Amino acid sequence: MAALKGVSVALFALFGGALVGFAAAADPDPLVDFVPVDALGDAQFKFALGNSTGIVGPGGQIQPANVINFPALTSQGQSLVRFNLRPCGQNPPHTHPRASEVIFLISGGPLLVGFVDTTGIPHLNALMPGDVTVFPRGLVHFQQNFGTENAIYIAGLNSQNPGVQPMFTALGAFPAPVLATALNTSVANLTLTALPKNGAPPLGSAASGCVPGSLPPGIRV
């Protein structure tokens, strides 16, 4: 019995420690109602998400609302992004290491969205106005407008600082021999110019391969 008790205590310590580590990885609970910006008064709780150009790329516009431009979100464990994607505009494959994401399509579409799980299975959906989808934390995902009009949608993330890591930008940062080995090709055949560089516009557009109003084969609304 003493041996069993010792094993139970050891297991409790092991799993309890794992749970504590997991909890510590999320945004901490706020210790005050909010973090005040005295110079702004009540204006600090208002942000014009739809009235600013934000970040412009060839595929459209992104307007984030985060602790940098909307300090009222500090310690609240959330952030927002408004997207305005042109036809064939794409938010390229990327991850958020510190947040899961929920998307709500306001207008336009179909907006093709998807992520790949840790078993390598893709999960794809074509959204129409009023549809919602979720991207689990840390998984590679994308959005692309296959409609004939601009797609406007809101993304909500459960972190004040979710982080974003564009997949192809990350790959392009590795030495050429490393990337060639990973892709099972030679350095001579490696087309590094096709990979976005750091600082490239976050929204791309397709010169080929995308026809507005026509979803990829096998995808239905």
Topology, element by element:
Elements: H1 2-24, E1 55-57, E2 60-65, E3 79-85, E4 89-95, E5 101-107, E6 111-116, E7 122-127, E8 132-135, E9 141-145, E10 151-157, E11 165-166, H2 167-172, H3 176-182, E12 204-205
Antiparallel strand pairs: 1-2, 2-3, 3-10, 4-9, 4-11, 4-12, 5-8, 5-10, 6-7, 6-9
Please characterize this protein's 3D structure:
- The protein is of the alpha+beta class and 221 residues long.
- The chain has a domain at 41-165: Jelly Rolls, CATH 2.60.120.10.
- The protein is built from three helices and twelve strands, in the order αβββββββββββααβ.
- A six-stranded antiparallel β-sheet has the order 1-2-3-10-5-8, with no helix packed on it. Strands 4, 6, 7, 9, 11 and 12 form a six-stranded antiparallel β-sheet that branches.
- A hairpin with a 2-residue loop joins strand 1 (55-57) and strand 2 (60-65).
- The protein is globular.
- Residues 7-24 have low confidence and may be disordered.
- It is found in: Secreted, Extracellular space, Apoplast.
- Residues 47-191 form the Cupin type-1 domain.
- GO terms for molecular function: manganese ion binding.
- Belongs to the germin family.
